[in-house]
Specification:
Length: about 450
């Protein structure tokens, strides 16, 4: 380990392994370390035995739960938009051949105690029980406008400047009710709070277009998911890094991040050995002692193992349900992801449903009670409370590039945005001839 590297990456979460792979592809000599004995870090997928060992407080799995090895339980439950940033990144990095995907069966939204399929096409809008007859027509007009809108074609703008209009202004233009605005903003545009209503309508329209485009890929829902759990993603990106010369060390404790007299990172010490480096990339947990991150909140995730699919979802083997904040008197949405045997995450007849939300009170589990009621009685549940951190350091001075913690959202769009922002910060510190630009809308192909 006593060598010198261009980059040392700490943690094998999805974000860190993706950045590791991108830096290896960019020609950098990379050492990747993780204190855990498994890939994934905070975003790992665990077997049933591993889940009980980590969160079971000494309890052993009951025999009726089935074989431990048939479970792949995500610690960070998220789906992938079929036309979203993570899929584009997988295509860009040619890591799709390491993975196999399955479409999620359904996308639902909670309204006044009932669960409804999220309508995203004109046909679905007319059939939806979310709206009355006249509201369906107004919503249909909104959908047609969104689907026809092209930013570079003024003829599709219909005399609206979406860069100046707010989301609230656009909804008002179409006469949509507050309840319709609720599910459009949170279940189609996938905003986590109502703050978007005060932002540019252009962002709202682009998010709705992404949902519709992703839905059009396969038909049932806009989401896809890798078989055997999200822990497959870090492993795929790790293989990409290794192919390009990256060195991996699991079960490697990080004793100390070393800095020179000017405060710039110069190495990482583990078990008495120090690897030198020019920069360090890592998840926030590796920088707590150095004061380079701050806690900005918490996320509650309740993992439920069940013997039944989520009620009122047409017996969907896999689905997402979004409970908009206003439906339950909160400031943040509540998310439910459910997966079954067809996704290779549970034995036949078992389901893994995970409830997630941003913590707002001193009783996080009580906050997500509306979601737990939807699920019905589980065979077993685990309540996980995760601190959310973000970096506060000056990367231009200390050479430390730190990702943010995973948020409560049930998709990867914000995660890939974070990765791209960190990557661009790294590239900005390199000489111009060493910079590699990534355009996810027109990505160059990574060489084999």
């Amino acid at each position: 380990m006593d060598e010198e590297y261009d980059v040392i990456v700490l943690g094998t979460g999805m974000k860190d392994t993706l950045l590791s792979g991108l830096m290896s592809v960019a020609g950098k000599k990379v050492l990747h370390m993780d204190r855990n004995s498994y890939y994934g870090g905070e975003s790992a997928s665990l077997s049933l035995d591993e889940m009980f060992k980590k969160y079971g407080n000494g309890e052993k799995p009951a025999p009726e739960l089935g074989s431990s090895r048939d479970y792949n339980i995500d610690l960070i439950p998220k789906f992938m938009m079929a036309s979203g940033k993570l899929v584009k990144m997988l295509l860009h990095t040619k890591t799709t051949h390491y993975l196999e995907f399955k479409q999620i069966d359904g996308s639902f939204v909670f309204k006044k105690g009932d669960i409804h399929k999220v309508p995203a096409t004109e046909t679905e809008a007319l059939k939806s029980g979310l709206m009355g007859l006249f509201e369906k027509r107004r919503f249909r007009n909104f959908l047609v406008y969104v689907q026809d809108y092209e930013e570079k074609d003024p003829g599709t703008h219909k005399n609206r400047d979406l860069s100046k209009m707010t989301g609230a202004d656009l909804f008002k233009d179409f006469g949509l009710s507050d309840e319709t605005i609720d599910f459009v903003g949170h279940a189609i545009a996938l905003h986590t709070t109502d703050g978007y209503l005060r932002g540019p309508a252009l962002d709202l329209v682009k998010r709705c277009q992404l949902y519709s485009l992703s839905l059009a890929q396969y038909g049932k829902s806009p989401y896809i998911y890798p078989l055997y759990g999200l822990g497959e993603l870090p492993q795929a990106f790790s293989r990409m890094s290794a192919v390009h010369g990256g060195v991996y060390m699991l079960n490697k404790p990080v004793d100390k991040i070393e800095y020179d007299e000017s405060g710039r990172v110069c190495g990482v010490t583990s078990e008495g050995e120090t690897a030198k480096c020019k920069m360090v990339i890592g998840d926030p947990s590796y920088f707590l002692a150095d004061g380079k991150v701050k806690q900005v909140g918490q996320v509650i995730r309740v993992v439920c193992i069940m013997s039944h699919p989520v009620p009122n979802t047409n017996n969907s083997d896999s689905c997402q349900i979004i409970i908009p904040q206003n439906q339950v008197g909160r400031s943040h949405d509540i998310y439910i992801t459910c997966l079954g045997n067809s996704n290779c995450v549970a034995p036949q007849g078992k389901y893994v449903a995970i409830v997630s939300s941003t913590v707002e009170t001193s009783d996080p589990v009580k906050e997500v009670t509306p979601a737990l009621k939807i699920l019905g009685k589980p065979d077993k549940f685990f309540a996980l409370l995760n601190n959310v951190y973000e970096p506060i350091n000056d990367h231009t001075k200390d050479g430390c590039f730190i990702t943010t913690s995973f948020d409560a959202t049930s998709h990867f769009e914000t995660s890939v945005t974070d990765v791209m922002e960190v990557y661009e910060k790294i590239m900005a510190t390199l000489p111009p001839e060493e910079r590699k630009v990534i355009d996810l809308d027109n990505p160059p192909q990574v060489e084999d």
